[in-house]
Design goal:
Helices cover 33% and strands 18% of the residues. The protein is of the alpha/beta class. The strands form five sheets. It has a six-stranded mixed β-sheet, with helices on both faces. The chain is globular, with a radius of gyration of 21 Å. The N and C termini lie close together (6 Å). Bound molecules: zinc ion (ZN). Zinc ion is lined by residues 13, 42, 190, 194, 341.
């Protein structure tokens, strides 16, 4: 047996509808299939892929969860007195997020987004640690713990470096010829499709660029390895936004007190509520129930989706918007986008994709199964 290399290329948001309409993309990957995603954003999907477990089993779902007693954000309350014109600026908030992350020693992907400073002390943040290194997962281990445990020399390129640099560093590692497994994460396609939708010519351009970069890496690989396997996969797809709705006023006009009667985090495709005072549940549920824009998910629905915790930390109830309906303004931002994901996983637009240039033995139906595929690839590479 010769020397082997396995490359796992994670292209964020490169869904089934993105690649099935572009059969030219990574043509050498002859096995092409659609893979069911899970209910949540990348903050949920990525850990699910890395661990092979649903959110309830790895404790990664949405970014913010209700926990006033453990919230590290108490001191930020003073910022709520700053003029809104200043603190609502995206750039200011990104700089603040960076400063907070460094002050608290967070190594994960940290963003306060558009959450009001007055509300932040009610919440804790789920992804404090870097999930792309061993020990990064809130509960249990990930493929990165496994690779270390199995003693497999590997290379990881995460979201921190630019994509050209990621391909560059992967190329250098391959040229050295000592690694057996490579993991590469790219997020530019996701950002591009949020802005331009999945039908944009810019998407074709980006995919062609990924492919040309990968071809360079593979050319190096074939001179140093006897056998090479490539898997390209994603965490979810991208739906085109057809309708923008402003639902928050329906809640605020109930004159319930935020933080006393209820708490809420308004993501772009779901509104999560915690009911703190009597009567809040009935009134909020009633206020959104007849809008025709989404549906309430209760305990049994959340449980089926793998996103229910006994302490309801991520919400007592979740109002999930219909695929293609965007909440704006939300705590994610105030500028509507053209493409969005984070809708229920049974919608075809949510489907992720898997492309491989080998006949995969692992059974891959849902993105959690990609973990098993990566393990299989790593083991295969180490046997060479
Ligand atoms: Zn995204």
């Amino acid at each position: 047996m010769g020397k082997r290399l396995a490359i796992a290329m994670f292209v964020d948001a490169c869904g089934w509808d993105v690649v099935s309409t572009r059969p030219w993309f990574m043509q050498s990957c002859f096995e092409r299939r659609s893979v069911k995603s899970i209910f949540g954003f990348s903050s949920a999907c990525v850990p699910s892929i890395l661990t092979g477990r649903m959110p309830r089993d790895n404790d990664h779902w949405s970014s913010f969860y209700y926990s006033p007693t453990t919230s590290p954000f108490g001191p930020l309350k003073v910022l709520s007195h700053l003029p809104r014109a200043l603190v609502d600026r995206g750039r200011v908030r990104r700089l603040l997020s960076k400063a907070i992350a460094s002050a608290y020693g967070y190594t994960g992907y940290f963003q306060i987004y558009n959450l009001p400073f007055g509300a932040l002390p009610l919440f804790d943040y789920a992804e404090k640690r870097d999930i792309f290194v061993p020990g990064g997962i809130n509960r249990g281990t990930s493929i990165f713990d496994d690779l270390v445990g199995m003693g497999i020399a590997h290379h990881v390129a995460d979201w921190r470096t630019g994509e050209a640099e990621s391909f560059g560093s992967l190329g250098r590692s391959v040229r050295e010829g000592t690694i057996r497994f490579a993991f590469m994460y790219t997020s530019k396609l996701d950002a591009l499709m949020h802005e331009h939708t999945r039908d944009s010519a810019l998407v074709d351009e980006r995919l062609r660029w990924y492919e040309s970069q990968m071809r360079e890496v593979l050319r190096e690989a074939y001179t140093r390895y006897d056998e090479v396997r490539v898997a390209v996969f994603s965490d979810h797809g991208m739906a085109t936004v057809r309708r923008v709705v402003d639902l928050v006023p329906r809640v605020t006009r109930l004159s319930l007190r935020y933080g006393r009667d209820y708490a809420g985090v308004y993501d772009s495709t779901m509104m999560r509520f915690w009911f703190l005072g009597s009567g809040a549940r009935e009134r909020i549920v009633g206020a959104l129930g007849d809008t025709g824009t989404g549906r309430w998910l209760e305990t049994s629905d959340l449980s089926k989706l793998g996103v229910w915790w006994p302490d309801n930390r991520f919400g007592d109830a979740v109002f999930a918007l219909e695929p293609g309906v965007l909440l704006n303004p939300s705590h994610m931002g105030t500028v509507p986008v053209a493409g969005m994901h984070g809708y229920r996983p049974d919608d075809p637009d949510s489907d992720a994709a898997l492309l491989t240039d080998f006949a995969a033995v692992a059974h891959v139906e849902q993105i959690t199964d990609l973990y098993g595929l990566m393990r299989e690839m790593a083991l295969w590479s180490s046997r060479g």
